[in-house]
Design a protein that fits this description.
MetI-like, single chain, 72% helix, 272 residues, MetI-like fold, mainly alpha
Length: 272
């Protein structure tokens, strides 16, 4: 009787998970299919032939949209945000291992931007730049806006990592004569390296597809999310779906590459 009940619960959970996956990836599959629309096809089903014309069209001169430029800007911005997020999150995690005056207030201040609507943050930064007579750009104002989104997540992740990190490893290294820097570089850093890679991936992906905090801060040149949004109002060919497919594949490749790097580091650490 109990086994039958567990079986029904298992099938119910499996069905629920299947519905969730369909809801999550169903729209992506529609974009993927329509990106292979025939040369004379439109933006809706059914397909009028099958071709890769729209992928080729991405690399041609466009009457509307700057695919290559927006992609390069989003990638560069994501890398910049990733580097700063990893460094600051690591330093914050190390600092908060010890109690100091104002630690609680500083923590709440660091994560406060998570509860502020993203569009308000974007508007506020844009207004501040204008008040100081500075032109908002993707590599200054948008860079700062993205950090208000990625840094709190990075800091929270590093807090969780160091809460589970045993100081016995550092004590053992110091007992063997290692300096503070040697203890950090040869003991602490290799052990938390997979977590740092995860923080970096998190920072990059949050920045790469951020729309709301970029809307008022990107300035003259769009990032990829803004470019895609603009294309939805004036592009009438499946090239929009081709762009969505390419960016989605790129995102999955970044995730797969990062996971592969984490697995490689863990295996190398176990061998050594």
């Amino acid at each position: 009787m109990h086994s039958d009940k567990r079986g029904r619960e298992f099938y119910f959970l499996a069905l629920f998970f299947a519905i969730f996956v369909l809801f999550l990836y169903g729209p992506l599959s529609a974009v993927l299919i329509l990106s292979f629309q025939g040369p004379n096809g439109g933006l809706t089903f059914p397909l009028n032939g099958v071709s890769t014309r729209w992928f080729v069209n991405l690399f041609e001169t466009q009457a509307v949209g700057d695919f290559g430029g927006s992609f390069r800007r989003s990638t560069a911005l994501g890398v910049m945000v990733m580097i700063v997020t990893v460094v600051v999150a690591l330093l914050a995690g190390l600092a908060f291992r010890r109690k100091f005056a104002g630690a609680t207030a500083l923590f709440y201040l660091a994560v406060a931007s998570l509860v502020v609507p993203s569009i308000i943050v974007s508007l506020g930064i844009g207004v501040v730049f204008q008040q100081f007579g500075l032109e908002p750009t993707w590599y200054t104002s948008a860079f700062g806006a993205h950090l208000t989104w990625t840094l709190p997540f990075g800091v929270l992740i590093m807090f969780a990592v160091f809460n589970r990190f045993s100081p016995a490893y550092e004590e053992a290294a110091r007992d063997l004569g290692a300096s503070s820097w040697q203890t950090f570089s040869n003991v602490v850093l290799p052990m938390i390296a997979p977590s740092l890679i995860g923080v970096g991936l998190f920072g990059f992906t949050l920045s790469y597809d951020e729309f709301a905090r970029t809307l008022m801060t990107a300035g003259t040149y769009n990032t990829l999310p803004l470019e895609i949004y603009g294309m939805t109002t004036n592009v009438t060919t499946p090239v929009l779906y081709a762009l969505g497919t390419v960016t989605t594949v790129f995102s999955f490749l970044v995730i797969a590459g990062t996971l592969g790097l984490i697995v490689y580091i863990n295996r190398r650490r176990l061998r050594s």
